[in-house]
Write a structure and sequence with these properties.
This protein is of the alpha+beta class. It has helices at residues 3-30, 32-41, 83-97, 120-129, 153-156, 164-170, 184-188, 190-193, 231-244, 275-284, 293-296, 306-315, and strands at residues 43-49, 56-57, 63-75, 112-117, 136-145, 159-160, 180-181, 198-204, 210-217, 225-226, 249-254, 261-267. 37% of the residues lie in helices and 22% in strands.
């Protein structure tokens, strides 16, 4: 290699080296604070993967209760610098979604729920503006559905978020937003219906998008229940009771061959999917629509005792056509 060519290659190498040094100086010194802030916003988040509760079906396989996934907007206080950043986030949420959210700076470890994203358009709006919402992310949480509404409200019951006592009882199986049974089969069969939550460790970038998943344990759905009730008979009971114009009472239909309960209807009723918004009116209602009158009310036996007395008389040899004067006792 000639000396001139060697000097040319040497100068090119020196120039490239200087360019690299200048670039490093620019990135680490001039723009260092900017990229440091971006690096802080790329963080590892451990989130709960919520499990579906088991389905509940009637004897013919009709779904009486099941879960559907819903997206919720969550806030993680641990990813905010101070209350000024929180106020900025809340103002941005109002500007993006048109919703006013109240929250105070906290040291809470668990994220809090802000509100539910009702449509795909709202979900897209979040992702398009996530860079202005540090500490805010979306989480998929199952929501309970009762397709027959009032028809099975007392039998199936309803669910709600766990209180401290229930959370301690099922803490290895549920998360803060898990639904637990509060009445009816949802409560009595909670051990079976509850699933097992999973966990996921993800790396999230400054725009709030998932960069990669580090680790994951998948959630497990709860066991499903198939009960002896029949949707058609339950609907007939409701129709018959409403046509009677009685304000309160109940109907139970049992198969005498095996004791299976085919229908169990209590009146008045409530809509388990609108329980929260109607709660105050329900608990103040003098007819107590939350009470399952078939199982929990007290009534005098009245004519219910007559079949037993009839069988007893027949066993004593009294003819079905013979009249018996009941004096209140029999010797």
């Amino acid at each position: 290699m000639s000396r001139r060519r060697f000097l040319f290659v040497f100068l090119i190498g020196i120039l490239l080296y200087l360019l690299i040094l200048i670039r490093l100086f620019y990135l680490q010194v001039v723009k260092g604070e900017y990229y440091q802030d971006l690096a802080k916003r790329n963080y590892i988040r451990r989130r709960v993967l919520y499990a579906q509760r088991g389905n509940i079906t009637d004897r013919n396989g009709n779904l009486l209760a099941y879960d559907v996934p819903k997206h919720y907007l969550m806030l993680d206080y641990q990813k905010l610098e101070d209350k000024n950043e929180l106020e900025e986030v809340l103002n941005n949420i109002k500007a993006i979604f048109g919703k006013t959210v109240e929250a105070k700076m906290s040291k809470a470890i668990e994220p809090i729920v802000l509100f539910r994203l009702e449509t795909q358009e709202e979900l897209d709006r979040f992702y398009n503006n996530a860079y202005n919402l540090p500490g805010v992310f979306t989480s998929v949480v199952p929501e309970r559905r009762y397709p027959f509404g009032e028809l099975f409200c007392h039998v199936i019951g309803y669910t709600s978020l766990p209180d401290k006592r229930i959370f301690e009882k099922f803490k290895r199986r549920i998360g803060p937003q898990s639904l637990v049974g509060m009445s009816g089969l949802e409560k009595s069969q909670d051990e079976k219906l509850l699933g097992w939550v999973g966990t996921e460790e993800i790396v999230v970038n400054a725009a709030g998008r998932i960069v990669r998943t580090i680790g994951e344990s998948k959630p497990s759905m709860g066991f499903s229940l198939k009960i002896s009730l029949d949707v058609r008979l339950q609907a007939i009971c409701k129709e018959v009771f409403e046509s009677s114009r009685q304000k309160a009472g109940g109907i139970i239909v049992i198969d005498p061959r095996n004791g299976e309960v085919l229908a169990l209807y209590s009146h008045p009723v409530f809509n388990p999917e609108r329980l929260r918004e109607n709660w105050d009116n329900l608990i103040k209602d003098p007819l107590a629509p939350l009470l399952n009158r078939v199982l929990n009310a007290r009534y005098p036996p009245a004519s219910v005792v007559k079949p037993a007395l009839g069988v007893a008389l027949l066993e004593k040899g009294v003819s079905a056509r013979e009249k018996v004067n009941c004096k209140g006792h029999m010797e």
